[in-house]
Design brief:
The structure is a homodimer of 292-residue chains.
Chain A lengths: L5 E6 L4 E6 L5 E7 L10 H13 L4 E4 L14 E2 L4 H6 L2 E3 L4 E3 L3 E5 L2 E5 L2 H11 L6 E5 L4 E7 L2 E8 L1 H11 L14 H10 L4 H13 L8 H15 L7 E5 L2 H13 L3 E5 L1 H17 L1
Parallel strand pairs in A: 1-4, 4-7, 5-8, 10-13, 13-14
Antiparallel strand pairs in A: 1-2, 2-3, 6-7, 8-9, 10-11, 11-12
Helix pairs in contact in A: 3-9, 4-7, 5-7, 5-8, 6-7, 7-8
Chain lengths: 292, 292
């Protein structure tokens, strides 16, 4: 047990990813489940830790993400941007269960706006420090709450969050568009038409246009979800992007593909970054700093 | 029963307003209930009509609104804009229950967009024909789906619909902002700050800023709902308004106040129009044309 191994957990809103790490920062095992913070109450966390210890032994656990939020185990104070990986490591909080550490999120307050992140900071700073992306770069981290992050000198210096993914889910699950949004969302012509339509602003009217388009036979019902996704992602990307901007996209899966497509349609250059490798690089740097 | 009286029904998504009308178009009785189309299945309508007949006698019934939609009693084809009150009257559909008439909605198809309305057309054309507003005017009809309507020569020539009200409800009831949006929405400083913040675009990030602002103590939790409402209405109005534009606002109640405030904050002139009087004027014109 004193071999330097530990558990790194990317503990988000809906998912949890658990990595058994060796002392060199290599993931020996990885698994993913749905025991995100929405599934758990405050009192569930000690039990969760006991289960992990029963399986993996009494090794340190270091977690990042929404586990450290008002909705998670405990509200860990944000560190303020600009923030580097050392800033995070200095503000890690030890939880009552022995040897469980939670990495803080990052906040920013600028004139007229305020923003917060939890979890993305480990990925972005891990990427910038491990050479997965330049130390000066812009990142897009697609998800329920899409993050746009600017890193300079391997420190987070600015960021903003768009409710793009959550709005899509609300529209698909609860809105007047819901029954029309049963089709797949892929990077096809309907999605791309949506991106073009969404780039120009007027999102509130463009969204209702999905319903009208289907009712009037101008939009195929099977394409409505992809078109609506394009509208939202197009509006999101257009608000951030100038032609020629290089954006490092931290996401695998469909969402990463959709954002990459929208960024390129709108004149930017999208560079993929392995989000998991970035998280592991970042969390291992924090762990090393804790041990130092 | 042959005295020319009839029932006029503004039969919407969530509410139903029933007016007992005399032959001159005066409402003798008025009531409002929650038996909108969302409360009813297709098979419920004949029973609803029987109940109305039992109370009011075997007089004609003329209804407008979502009752004539895919979610209502029967999908009545839209008439295409440009559309005047005569256009509506010619396309009224008689339902199987004797002497029940449903007024069609209006559709528009323009390059790159399509839109539909059901119910607002009776109000707007009623207002324009009865002198409640000029025959050439722009209207705003706040509601779950806010309508912006351009009337020329007392005909609807263009319109678009914004999902403003529905998005507000989705965010308040189902989103990550929900627990923060328990405060009142009034035309106060928080709403007006939201309008100013919403006018500049970037709605997707501004909405997440509500959460971040509360978490970081920059926005009072009690003000969050009003601020979010301001963001949405500000974005909606800003997309439609040029300075000096005169907008006729067809709505009483809080929403009318909020839109009036936002229109004036953003440099427009808001003119109130009594929405109920406009509906009654419009539906009575349709009734007269049916009888002629």
């Amino acid at each position: 047990m004193a071999d330097g191994s530990y558990l790194a957990i990317d503990w988000g809103t809906t998912n949890r990813r658990i990595y058994l790490m060796d002392r060199a920062g290599t993931a020996l095992e990885a698994e993913r489940d749905d025991r995100g913070v929405l599934m758990l109450s405050v009192d569930d966390y000690p039990t969760e830790i006991d289960r992990l210890r029963a399986r993996f032994g009494a090794i340190p656990i270091i977690a990042a993400g929404m586990v450290g939020s008002t909705r998670g185990w405990r509200d860990i104070p944000y560190v303020e941007a600009p923030a580097g990986i050392e800033t995070l490591a200095r503000a890690v909080i030890c939880m009552p269960a022995a040897d469980v550490w939670i990495v803080p999120g990052v906040s920013i307050v600028a004139p007229g706006r305020a923003d917060v992140m939890r979890g993305e900071e480990v990925q972005v700073l891990g990427a910038a420090r491990a050479g997965l992306a330049p130390a000066d770069a812009r990142f897009c981290q697609p998800g329920t709450h899409n993050k746009w992050i600017r890193v300079a000198g391997a420190r987070i210096v600015d960021f903003s969050t768009a409710m793009t993914g959550e709005l899509f889910a609300l529209l698909r699950d609860h809105s007047v568009l819901a029954e029309m949004m049963r089709g797949p969302v892929t990077d096809g012509p309907a999605f791309r038409d949506g991106v073009e339509a969404g780039r120009g602003g007027g999102l509130l009217t463009a969204l209702f246009g999905v319903r009208a388009g289907v009712l009037l036979g101008r939009l195929d019902r099977a394409d409505a979800a992809a078109f609506a996704s394009g509208l939202l992602i197009g509006a999101d990307v257009a608000a951030q992007l100038a032609p020629g901007d290089v954006i490092h996209v931290l996401s695998g899966g469909t969402l990463g593909t959709l954002y990459t497509s929208a960024i390129e349609l709108l004149g930017g250059v999208a560079v993929p970054v392995d989000a998991e490798a970035a998280f592991l690089a970042g969390i291992h740097l924090v762990k090393e700093m804790l041990d130092a």
